[in-house]
Amino acid sequence: MPKFEKYQQATPSYIELTTPDPEAGAAFYAALFGWDIDAMEMPPEAGGTYRQAKIEGDVVAGISGQMPGMEGHPAFWGVYLTVDDVDGASAKVEGAGGKVEAGPFDVMDVGRMAAIQDPTGARVNLWQPGTSIGNERANEPGSLIWNELVTPDIPKALAFYAEVVGLGSQASEQMPDYVSITNVAGEVVGGTMLPQMEGIPPHWNLYLAVEDADATAGRIAELGGQTIAPNFDVPGVGRMGVYADPQGGMFNLFQAPAE
């Protein structure tokens, strides 16, 4: 189901690029995925002009400038988890071993959010919908299809999210050594994994769906992006690779196996 009108609690529901050059970032992803970009003027302390990426009028991502004090930081993608009560969830963060880094605060009438860090160091945002649920389209080419929590201590991180937002976990049917994560309705909405190389900090990553991963990889290079890990096949799952945009924002490609 590519279109969404609501998300269950503990579901990754929005992705947002924070970048030192939002105009160039928007141009890169628009050329790569065919996104239409809508711009909205915001105060400088809120990152300046805010952009939303859309496919056929449906929101698929946000693009923001950097906040003051972030000068020199490379671009990065952030992930939002839907919650029914952001104040209630945020109140559980410190007791569960995490940190509330910002909020909760209102984003006009769009929603209410908080920025938190789990006990292993991974950062994520909590989103209580107002007029916006986040991504209105997903699971099709050019949009979000999967998220992973990358952490050196999976049990510790999962215990934290279970207490704060009710996130669950279960063994993957396709990959026995892989732990999937579930929302409060028991639906699989992502996964967890250990860092695959030394020096990778804990984080939530994202996979963007494409019809042809190899062709998209070639286009990334043409547009000035970088290959971090070339495309590879996971039997029964799909073809994927890790890439970065020209400002350093890292993302994964995912091509579903042929039916």
Write the layout of secondary structure elements.
Elements: E1 12-18, H1 22-33, E2 36-40, E3 50-55, E4 58-64, E5 76-82, H2 86-91, E6 99-107, E7 111-117, E8 123-129, E9 144-150, H3 154-165, E10 168-171, E11 179-182, E12 188-193, E13 203-209, H4 213-222, E14 226-234, E15 238-244, E16 250-255
Parallel strand pairs: 1-4, 5-8, 9-12, 13-16
Antiparallel strand pairs: 1-5, 2-3, 3-4, 6-7, 7-8, 9-13, 10-11, 11-12, 14-15, 15-16
- Overall mean pLDDT: 94
Architecture of the largest domain, according to CATH? Answer: Roll
User: Percentage of helical residues?
Assistant: 10-25%
Instruction: Please indicate the count of domains.
Output: 2
Question: Topology as H/E string?
Answer: EHEEEEHEEEEHEEEEHEEE
Distance between the termini: 17 Å
Strand content: 35-45%
Number of strands: 16
Strand order of the largest sheet: 2-3-4-1-5-8-7-6
Largest sheet: 8 strands, mixed
Organism: Nocardioides marmorisolisilvae
Protein name: VOC family protein
Domain VOC: 11-129, 143-256
InterPro entries: Anthracycline_SecMetBiosynth, Glyas_Bleomycin-R_OHBP_Dase, Glyas_Fos-R_dOase_dom, Glyoxalase_6, VOC_core
Description of the structure:
With 259 residues, this protein is α+β, with helices and mostly antiparallel strands. It has two domains: 12-129, Roll (2,3-Dihydroxybiphenyl 1,2-Dioxygenase, domain 1), CATH 3.10.180; 144-255, 2,3-Dihydroxybiphenyl 1,2-Dioxygenase, domain 1. The chain contains four helices and 16 strands. It has helices at residues 22-33, 86-91, 154-165, 213-222; strands spanning 12-18, 36-40, 50-55, 58-64, 76-82, 99-107, 111-117, 123-129, 144-150, 168-171, 179-182, 188-193, 203-209, 226-234, 238-244, 250-255. It is globular and about 45 Å long. The mean pLDDT is 94.
